[in-house]
Amino acid sequence: MGNQTTFHAPGSGADFLGWRVSRAGTTEIVYEDGAAHRMIWRVASELPDEISLGEALQVAVLAQRVVPTLIDELKKRAIAVERIAF
């Protein structure tokens, strides 16, 4: 692996984005904000490129509006996701 899998917003670090592989072997993206809200998406695309996925998360966590930017960045990279937890 060797690629970065977790990202924190600069400054306060309140926003967190990361990706993980579940026990079932699926890739999941996790978002948490400073108010303890958590969202999880399952990557529906076949085995995403770890570098592209990491780049999308890094761009999103630096944005003012993290979640909309994340969705846009994933679409740009043709990474399909489905929301599984709020």
Describe it for me?
The chain is globular and about 35 Å long. It contains 2 helices and 5 strands, in the order ββββααβ. The chain has one domain. A hairpin with a 7-residue loop joins strand 1 and strand 2 (about 15-20). It is about 25% helix and about 30% strand. The protein is an alpha+beta fold and about 90 residues long.
Summarize the structure.
With 86 residues, this protein is of the alpha+beta class. It contains two helices and five strands, in the order E-E-E-E-H-H-E. Helix 1 runs antiparallel to helix 2 (66-76).
Q: Which terms would index this structure?
A:
single chain; about 90 residues; alpha+beta; five-stranded antiparallel β-sheet; 2 helices
Topology:
Elements: E1 6-8, E2 16-21, E3 27-32, E4 38-43, H1 50-61, H2 66-76, E5 81-85
Antiparallel strand pairs: 1-2, 2-3, 3-4, 4-5
Helix pairs in contact: 1-2
Order of helices and strands: EEEEHHE
Q: Terminal Cα separation, in Å?
A: 28 Å
Integer count of domains: 1
Unreliable residue stretches? none
Shape: globular
Q: If you average the pLDDT, what whole number results?
A: 87
Strand % is 25-35%
Structural class: alpha+beta
* Radius of gyration, whole Å: 12 Å
Strand arrangement across the biggest beta sheet = 1-2-3-4-5
- Number of helical stretches of at least 4 residues: 2
In total, how many beta strands? 5
Oligomer: single chain
Helix content: 25-40%
